[in-house]
Design goal:
The complex is a heterodimer of chains A (about 110) and B (about 525). Chain A is mainly alpha-helical. Chain A has helices at about 5-15, 30-40, 65-70, 75-80, 80-85, 90-105; strands at about 20-25, 60. Chain A has one domain (about 5-105). With about 525 residues, chain B is of the alpha/beta class. The chains are: A mainly alpha (about 110), B alpha/beta (about 525). The interface of A and B includes residues 28, 29, 81, 82 and 83 of A.
């Protein structure tokens, strides 16, 4: 996750509290999704950004996960994400996201 | 008025191993920030020889010796595969070695800023005199060479940029002004590389297709560098500079910029200028970028593979009035990513692919080949950027599924039938749609395809003036020969007689006959 986005996540979490923040990812494959998810839960694995060593444990989902899909208007989802849902390897993204959440998430709801 | 045609194309690569180390930004930044890094120590062990670069399958495709589809016969990765008997010369161009190209930089320099030492000059003079497209007049511009003492003085005391060959300093590019950052030695070096590789592409286009350079009316240069001084950083004009050295004495020109999308913008502009009758023959041309050499070198070294971004790319395409044979450029079926399009992949693919198809009442599958961002996946996959053409084909197919033109199972196979494996070097503007134009012209002539779409996309946000990116596309179509431009058109006499007849008809109505 780039340094600017790490700072944004950190600032928003300080302002609103970790329990009130959800991070939605749009990365193109599982490995990149996992790295970003790890950054906002266990801290920046590259130890380069503002979240290095900061364990926010935030709720984090990828835009193709059912948890997110179920929360948004079906038509809007179809318009914005429907096509990429066919292109991306959705199953491996879901597996990766689940494993990061169960390992590092503080809000397992 | 009849459509313009894509008449001919030229493509060149230049193998530049020393420029990776000394001019590629990944390396120059590393030298500044971490001069003793392991990467810089390892890098020289990962450079390919000229022979390896020539026999590399994607490079043979770029210069037209192999069709893009033939890459499917080589299992990936390709860096350890060879085209047996692969040659320097291809149907569409050549792969030039670094020493000859340094000579060509000197030939392209009209301000006496490139200084080459005497022994290098003699060596390169002999090599270039055997080059079929380099004229005696061009060779004479190499002059006699300079003393090494003088060259060292320019480098050590006057901020000249050294020119290396096989690890040795063989010359330098001098700064063109003492304080102007836009004319410093680094910028002049980059710009002369653009000019020289643009010229090489231009002369291949002209010579391989028996085109009279004097018949060219206009040149559009569409690379990603800018030439100018401190009062007009991107003043221009690479196009006219290239036309001058290419002998196009009746041409003027201008530079078109749009990041990687610029070549497709230029193709549309050229087609429009010809279709409207402003000009009859327009060449679009671009040289290569030293900055991008070894851009993903760190990943390549880490994965213990050769540094594959070791070539500069260049191309030139001639757009002419309808000859009844060459593929037509459907300027009425153009795709545009507009300011209001939005950034979701769906919106982008709709604007570039299906919007023009809808206008022409065509389906996604009516286009035989889509030429998208044709980056070589051998370069991008080890760097974690995936297979760019393949992702594009999947997105086009997925949109087709949403439009009920394709089945969901077709998403994985669409690219094989309507696309090609990527073969172009990651030189920004070079892979963007246009590498296929030369191959397409031949495939249209051989009746292998009826329609092709050229798609260019560009990351405008890198310039920090907007968050938007960009893209344009244009459909190429088989020429039916029915709309060949009439050289004479309707004569004045014929118009007069038609008007007279209409007047007579009108008068007879008034008289109630």
């Amino acid at each position: 996750m780039d340094l600017e986005n790490q700072q944004r996540v950190k600032d928003l979490t300080e302002k609103h509290g970790a329990e009130n923040v959800v991070v939605i990812l749009g990365a193109a494959e599982a490995e990149a999704s996992g790295l970003a998810a790890e950054t906002v839960t266990a801290g920046d694995p590259t130890f380069a950004g503002p979240l290095a060593g900061v364990q926010l444990g935030l709720r984090v989902y990828h835009a193709v996960e059912p948890e997110f899909k179920g929360e948004v208007n079906e038509e809007v989802f179809d318009d914005q994400i429907g096509m990429m849902e066919m292109v991306l390897d959705v199953d491996s993204i879901i597996d990766e996201m689940k494993s990061i959440r169960s390992e590092h998430g503080k809000f397992n709801d | 008025m009849s459509y313009a045609v894509a008449k001919a194309a030229g493509y060149v690569l230049v193998h530049t191993p020393d420029m990776i180390l000394h001019n590629g930004t990944t390396q120059t930044v590393e030298k500044r920030s971490n001069p003793n890094s392991e990467y810089l120590k390892q890098l020289p062990n990962h450079l390919r020889s000229y022979e390896e670069v020539v026999s590399y399958p994607p490079n043979q495709v770029y210069i037209g010796s192999m069709k893009p589809e033939e890459l499917q016969n080589y299992e990936m990765p390709w860096y350890d595969k060879k085209v047996e008997g692969g040659k320097r010369e291809g149907k569409l161009g050549e792969i030039m070695p670094q020493d000859e190209f340094i000579g060509l930089m000197k030939i392209s320099d009209v301000f006496d800023l490139v200084k080459l030492n005497t022994s290098f000059t003699n060596m390169v003079k002999e090599k270039l005199s055997k080059h079929p497209l380099i004229t005696e007049q061009m060779i004479a511009k190499l002059k006699e060479g300079e003393e090494m003492n003088d060259i060292n003085k320019y480098i050590n005391e006057q901020d000249a940029e050294p020119i290396y060959n096989n690890g040795d300093v063989v010359g330098c590019v001098k700064r063109a002004h003492e304080v102007d950052v836009n004319l410093n030695a680094h910028v002049i070096f980059e710009n002369l590389v653009v000019k020289a590789s643009g010229v090489l592409s231009f002369i291949h286009l002209i010579n391989k297709n028996n085109i009279d350079p004097e018949s060219i009316d206009y040149v559009i240069e569409c690379s990603e560098e800018a030439c100018g001084d401190m009062n007009q950083r991107g003043g221009g004009n690479f196009a006219k500079a290239i036309a001058e050295l290419g002998g196009a004495i009746n041409a003027t020109g201008s530079d078109t910029r749009g990041f990687c999308a610029a070549p497709t913008h230029a193709l549309i502009q050229a087609a429009a200028l010809v279709k409207s009758g402003v000009y009859e023959n327009v060449v679009i041309v671009a040289g290569g970028a030293t900055a991008k050499l070894g851009m993903n070198g760190k990943d390549h070294v880490k994965k213990e593979i050769p540094v594959l971004e070791d070539v500069l790319g260049g191309f030139a395409v001639l757009v002419s009035k309808n000859d009844g044979e060459s593929p037509i450029l459907r300027t009425d079926l153009v795709g545009r990513h507009t300011v209001g399009t939005g950034s979701s992949p769906q919106a982008v693919i709709t604007s570039l692919i299906t919007a023009p198809l809808d206008k022409g009442e065509l389906k996604i599958t009516d286009v035989d080949k889509y030429s998208v961002e044709m980056q070589n996946p051998d370069v991008t996959k080890p760097a974690g950027a995936g297979d760019v053409p393949e992702s594009n084909y999947k997105m086009i197919a997925a949109l087709g599924v949403k439009r009920k033109e394709l089945e969901r199972k077709d998403v994985a196979t669409f690219g094989k039938e309507h696309g090609m494996p990527g073969w172009a070097p990651t030189q920004g503007h070079i892979p963007s749609g246009v590498p296929y134009v030369g191959h397409a012209i031949e495939s249209f002539r051989n009746n292998e395809i009826q329609r092709a779409m050229i798609v260019g996309k560009g990351s405008l946000f890198l310039g920090r003036m907007t968050n938007l990116f960009d893209g344009v596309s244009i459909l190429m179509e088989k020429n039916t020969g029915n709309e060949k431009v009439q050289t004479e058109g309707v004569s004045e006499q014929e118009v007069k007689s038609m008007v007279a007849e209409a007047m007579r008809d009108f008068a007879s109505h008034l008289l109630g006959k």
